[in-house]
Design brief:
- This protein has 375 residues and is an alpha+beta fold.
- Helix content is 20%, strand content 32%.
- It has 6 helices and 19 strands.
- A hairpin with a 5-residue loop joins strand 10 and strand 11.
């Protein structure tokens, strides 16, 4: 007979009870989750760092050189910069800075009169700094407030002089480059175009006669310190001497600095004046022998109603001009203000014969007047 081992538990008995579950408070669970996340992140980053260390990174280097043509801005700047200098003056009342450029290899440098005016009138010192940082003292050869030009000389030879262009041939829209030391930042190069020609601009220093310039207008950035530096054309030839900038009026907060309205003395005029300053130490300019009413607000330039309105034995007297006459045209150019007439006359040469139109009692008259040297 077969025997059977008794079952330890009948098939119908209650199932074995499950172990009791342990419950973790919610706050503790969240804390553990955050910790687990941080640990996972650290482990993952360690793995990534390892992969970066073991991974070989190839950085590509380009060895191609940039081709800069001689007539590019960079090419022109490279040729012009060695001839442009910074000029600093020191007087008992302070000092100032400006720019200049070499016009003769024997050490002659052209700049604005207002850059060196204080040193010229008070016996101050002048220092010239080259683009490579070399400095040397300078002396004044001559200066002229009427054209706002001056020539200084340094004891050096074989200097790289700039070439003069022809400012009469420059056209509105032509590309130009201004070089100088705006705000003392030497070797600064800015570009722009000729925005206008024959702008009547009054400039100069705080003392002496005002300078009346038949200026070239440019939108190349010109700031304080650019004064006296060259304005060159697309060939690197000088076509102007940077001299003045326009600034916003009080209604615009009297904003200083470049606002796209810079003015340069045409080099054709500057060259004549520089030649006179080098040869004689002073410059002359053409006149017709009248004094103007600078307060006149109508169109044209009115001869002042004063004893000095018409100078004795002047060209104006010889052609019959009288005090109170209003000049409305000079050499084919319409005259809108006294400044425009002064600028138009000074842009001419001594000895030129020019057609002049004036109004007397609202009747127009034409005369031919000969320009003579100022006295």
């Amino acid at each position: 007979m077969e025997s059977f081992e008794p079952q330890s538990q009948p098939w119908w008995s209650e199932p074995t009870p499950r172990p009791k579950r342990s419950y973790i408070p919610l706050g503790a669970a969240l804390a553990l989750a955050v910790i687990a996340g941080l640990v996972g992140s650290v482990v993952g980053n360690i793995t990534n760092v390892g992969s970066l260390i073991n991974h070989r990174v190839n950085l590509v280097t380009v060895s191609n050189s940039i081709e800069r043509k001689p007539d590019s801005v960079a090419g022109i700047a490279q040729r012009v910069l060695p001839s442009v200098v910074s000029i600093s003056t020191k007087t008992a009342n302070g000092g100032g800075t400006g720019s200049g450029f070499i016009i003769d290899s024997a050490g002659y440098i052209l700049t604005n009169n207002h850059v060196v005016e204080a040193a010229a009138t008070s016996g101050g010192s002048i220092t010239v700094t080259f683009n490579d940082g070399r400095t040397i003292g300078a002396t004044i050869v001559g200066h002229d407030s009427s054209y706002d030009l001056a020539v200084v000389k340094i004891a050096a030879t074989n200097l790289p002089a700039l070439q003069f262009g022809d400012s009469d041939k420059i056209q509105v829209g032509d590309t130009v480059i201004a070089v100088g030391s705006p705000l003392g930042l030497s070797g600064t190069v800015t570009t722009g175009i000729i925005s206008a020609k024959d702008r009547a601009v009054t400039a100069g220093g705080s003392t002496g006669e005002s300078s009346f310039i038949n200026a070239l207008q440019t939108d190349a950035a010109i700031n304080p310190g650019n004064s006296g530096g060259p304005l060159v054309d697309s060939t690197g030839a000088v076509i102007g001497v940077n001299s003045a900038i326009a600034s916003l009026g009080s209604s615009y907060g009297s904003q200083p600095g470049s606002i796209g309205l810079g003015f340069a003395i045409p080099i054709n005029q500057a060259r004549k004046t520089a030649d006179q300053l080098i040869k004689t130490g002073k410059a002359t300019y053409p006149v017709i022998g009248i004094s103007l009413d600078m307060t006149y607000s109508g169109l044209g330039a009115k001869i002042a109603n004063s004893a000095t309105g018409i100078r004795a034995d002047s060209s104006a007297m010889k052609v019959g001009l009288r005090v109170g006459d209003i000049i409305i045209n000079f050499d084919g150019k319409t005259i809108n203000s006294p400044d425009e007439l002064i600028v138009a006359v000074r842009a001419k040469n001594i000895g030129d014969r020019v057609k002049l139109t004036y109004l007397r009692d609202k009747i127009s008259h034409d005369v031919i007047v000969t320009l003579v040297a100022s006295r």
